[in-house]
Amino acid sequence: MRIGPYTLKNRLIVAPMAGVTDRPFRMLCKRLGAGMAVSEMITSNKALWTTAKTLRRANHDGEVEPISVQIAGADPVQMAEAARLNVEQGAQIIDINMGCPAKKVCNVAAGSALLRDEALVGRILEAVVKAVDVPVTLKTRTGWSREHKTALRVARLAEDCGIAALALHGRTREDMYKGAAEYDTIRAVKQAISIPLIANGDIDSPERARHVLDYTGADAIMIGRAAQGRPWIFREIQHYLDTGETLPPPPVAEIRLLLLEHLDELYGFYGEYSGCRIARKHIAWYTRGLRGSNEFRQAMYQLEDTASQRRAVADYFDRLASDSERLEYVDAMGDTDEALAG
């Protein structure tokens, strides 16, 4: 899998997710087998470029290459400026967001809202490609609604504008994240273009990853929500693609250490107050479905400092280890408190 001059180590890419794919998470996923990770989106609004949030999102210190940064906006000039700024700050690949379905993004005509104006899509793509000398990629959806699927036209437009690779989520903006992703449109787009195509949507297991690659003919797959609390999914998928065999669940001791290291990175990156609060959703994702996890989470949510939070996580996994050597999921995987976990 190549994007411009960069050859990825495999065909597994971490999807950009607002509030999730920060530097600690990207680095962890790469360590556990992802070939590339795309940053959470950075606004093209210049008034926000110097905020603490934007500066953190643009922090790539120590990150494994290639560094891919996603930008979002609806003005071609602003998007071009944002691309140039991020390249100056270390971005090696610029990714354009035309897939986010969130209301706060679509309400300013950005993200997947752009799919209603294909002429504007073309102007943004051309402006960003011309503004920088690094590869520019595009992440989008199959269309605005099921009645208005634009993926084929947008894909051809992207290729004509010089986009280096296209990531396509198998849902429309109208679908949000409901229902099942469909791969027929991704397959049709792959057959219509020559640039690399990355398939995205509901890839939550090694078996599904194999099916999507085979069915769509995609050059790579992009994994988002399935990696939340399970960053080792990338090594599980790669092992299955290589051998056809499924890895056993990881040892409790390994995930205990992994999560504690992740927490330490979050605490260092965000500081005491924000680090403790941002860590809560990650802890919830890591523990969903595990024995006694609901009770553990309700107690953990009340902790107000990083030392107590870290100690509670260590103690919880010590209790799990006393019952089983490997992770055992005993409850529904989606039983976490979604208001706090996602």
List keywords for this structure.
342 residues; alpha/beta; two-stranded antiparallel sheet; 45% helix; 13% strand
Structure characterization notes:
- The strands form 3 sheets. This protein has a 9-stranded parallel beta sheet.
- Helix 1 packs antiparallel against helix 10 (252-270), helix 3 (76-88) runs parallel beside helix 5 and helix 10 runs antiparallel to helix 11.
- The model is unreliable at 105-109 and 334-342 (pLDDT under 50).
- The protein has helices spanning 23-31, 52-57, 76-88, 103-106, 118-131, 151-161, 184-192, 206-216, 233-243, 252-270, 272-287, 293-300, 306-323, 338-341, and strands spanning 2-3, 6-7, 12-14, 36-37, 42-43, 68-72, 93-98, 136-141, 143-145, 148-149, 165-169, 197-200, 220-223.
- The chain has 342 residues and is an alpha/beta fold.
- The protein contains 14 helices and 13 strands.
- 45% of the residues lie in helices and 13% in strands.
